[in-house]
Amino acid sequence: MTVFPTACAVVALVAATPALAQTPSQDDLAALVRQQAAEIAALKARLDRLEGAQAAAPAEAVPPVALASAPQQVITPPFAPQLVSPGPAERDIGRARDANASGVTTEWGAGLPVFRSADGVFTYKPRGRILTDVSSTFGSRYAGRNITTTGMRALRLGLEGGVGTHFFYQFESDFSENEVDIVTAFIGWRNRLGKIGDYDVRAGHLFNDRSFEGSTGSDSTPFMERTVVATAIIPQRGFYGIGIMPRVFWKSGHASLTVTGDRVDGNQANSDSRTVLGRVHWNPIKTDRGVLHLGAWGFDEALASSATALTRNTVIGGRFNGALRVSTGALTGGTGTTGYGVEVGGYVGPLWLMGEAGRREARLDGGRPDFVSTAWSVSGGWFLTGDLPPYNPRLGSFGQPRVLKSIFDGGPGAIELTARYEDLDYTNLLTGGRGWAATVGANWYLNSFIRFQFNVAHWNTDNRAGAYTGPDDGQTVGTRIAVTF
C-alpha cells in the first residue's frame, strides 16, 4: 500500500515536469520525503491498532508457531535518508552474530569462560586468584608479636591457551605486595608416549615441582600457609626459576626434572645460580574412592658469587606477622645447597592424611662444616559433606575441589575440618632457632572456586638471634576469603 502511492507520485511529478526527470530540485525532493513520512506514520498507526487487537484476543487465538516463524518486514522508502544510526545494542548484537557465524565457542568453567575456535585449534582462557587474609596473634611474651594484620596472599591475573593439541602457554602476574611480580610464565609442548602415557616440556619462569604442598598452588593448600617442609627445605632462589622442565606421566604417577637459573630479576651483571631439581610420585593404589600416595624429591644448587647469603626467617604461625618467624640468624658465605625429602599419604572417601619430611644441607666457604636444617609435618582433613579430597593423581598435589552440592545450586557447599602438626629445626647452626606449630582449621567451599578458610595455630619458637630470642609461644587466628578462576 505504501509503495503504490509513492510510485504514482513519482510518475505524476515526472510527467508534470519533464526537466525534473533529469535534475529534481531540493523543494521537490523535500515534498516527496514529507509525503512518504506521512504514509509511514499512517501505516504505523494501523499496525499499532492491529497489535493492540491481537494482545486483547485470547491466548489460544494467536498461534505461537506462526508468530515465531513470521519474518519481520523492513520497509525502506526510496530516496528516504538514513535518519538514525545503529545504537550500541544493535552493534553488540551484530558482533555476536558475526562471532557465532565464525564458529567460536565459549565454555564457562571455574568462574571465567574458555574460548575455542571453530576448528578447535586455538584455545584461550583468562586466569586469576584473589586471596585476602586477616590474622591476629596473641599470647606471646613479646608485645611486638601480638599484632593484627591484613594482607593479600595472592592477587593474580593471567592467561593460558594453546594452539593445536601440542603447543600451550601460560602467563601470570601477582600484585599482592602492591608491586608487579612475574610468577608463572612459560611455553610448552606435549605429546603421547605410545602406550606408556604422555609427556610435556615447559620452558620459561617455572613453579617448583618439589614436595607435596610445595607443588600445590597457594589457592589450593588446605591450610592458609604451606608446611615448613615446603617453606624451609627449598632452593635459595625460592619457588620459581627460569629454565626448562620436562615431565613424564603414566597411569599411576609422574616424574619431572627441572634445570633453572634465578627467578625473574633485573640483574644481568653476574652469573645466575644453577638449580637441578627432580621429583617423582607414585599411586600404587588408586580407586574411585581412595588413593595411596608415595613421593620423593631432591635438588642441588650451585650459588652464584652474588648470592652467598643463606639467612632464613621462616613462617611458623602465620604469613602476615613479620615478627613471628623461626630464624637462622645472619648466615653468609654459602657456596651451594642440597635438599631432599619424602611424601607419604593418601585418602579414603572424605578422609585424607599426608606426612612430609625434608633435609637441607648448605655448603659454606672457608672450610666450615655444612649447615643442616630439617623439617617434618603431618596433616589431615575430613569432608563433613562427603566430598572427596581435591587430590590430583596426575601431579601428586592438591587442586581445586569438585563440590558435590554448590550453594549456588541450593546445597551446603563442601565443609572440611583440618589439623596439622609441623616442626622446623635450624639448631645445627649456633645462631639457629627451632619452632613447631599445631594448627586446626575449617574450610567452606561454596563451589569449586570460592572458599572461606579459618585457622587457629598454637606455635612455639626458640630463636637464638634477632629481636625475639628464647622460648616463646602463643596463638594466631587467621581467616581467608579466596576466589580462583
TrEMBL record:
Residues 1-21 form the signal peptide. This is OprO/OprP family phosphate-selective porin. It comes from Sphingomonas floccifaciens. SUPFAM superfamilies: Porins. Keywords: Signal.
